[in-house]
Please model this.
Amino acid sequence: MALRDFFGRLRGGAPQPTPETPNPDPPAPVAEIPPPEPEALPAEIPQPEAEAPAKTGWFARLKAGLSRSTAKLTDSVVSLLHKRRLDDEALEELEETLITADLGVAASRRIVEGFRRTRFGKEVTDEEVKAALADEIAAILDPVAQPMEIIPARAPHVVLVVGVNGTGKTTTIAKLGRHYAEQGMKIGFVAGDTFRAAAVEQLQVWAGRTSARFFAPAKPGADAAGLAFDALTAARADGLDLLLVDTAGRLHNKSALMEELRKIIRVIKRVDEAAPHSVLLVLDATTGQNAVQQVKVFKEMVDVTGLAVTKLDGSAKGGVVVALAQEFGLPVHVVGVGEKAEDLRPFAARDFARGLMGLD
Model:
């Protein structure tokens, strides 16, 4: 499926604590804050209406965004295998090189074994090496290149967005919301990162731009679970199609984060037993192999259903996407290579693999 068609087709652990008894007092009303005047916009938030039309296609931007990762990977591999017979020693060195390029031990071993079966004992050119690596990488990535399916019958489809601080959760929500709104969906944003005023303000701005309903905490540090409960109740009454719920990221305090996320899930299940319908874990590519550890930790907390990988344009560690695919097999829904809304796109295995190897 062509990337430009993707969004058009989107419509269509530990023992659980004893469930809380709902507060007999009526919940505090959810504050709906009107968007601020343009001059009050946070400087770091891009303004879509001011963006110039893209001069290059998505693959060109993806390839450019992966350029640091490409240089790190291809320079080492090509220099290693240039006009060299792929004997045992060369393949062992290749495996070490791939591991150093953040592809992970399991994926690197799988790639080398593929080389051993098909190219062992042969001399290869630089382009043959790149093309062969791209094919092996695409084979690993293809099973996880899956869109995040939004099911209208669930109305609203609830997406709980999780991740550590700084990965780009709030920005990812804003970009996803804009894309889905362009497909005619009625969107809601829940500012569940109640301790970060900047996150609340950022979602507020994007809600205004996308005509999304905005659910804000009544005060800083308000209970995120209560906010999510009220937001989902209101979203159902208003007939929203999609509710994107931001959450706080505090991996350094694992037990507190675990309990908060679990509480949010328990509370929203009182409104819709099937919610959240998706749990999207946002990962920052610049963290490299640390992203693997983040997936392990969050999988212990919640039922992660898919991944979004951001900031590939600022990283030389884009190979970690291959490591994630091989180790966890979780769907990779979207990848980001820039600040603009159109720089977050559905993940395509072949495009990513060829872009990573610097191929057209």
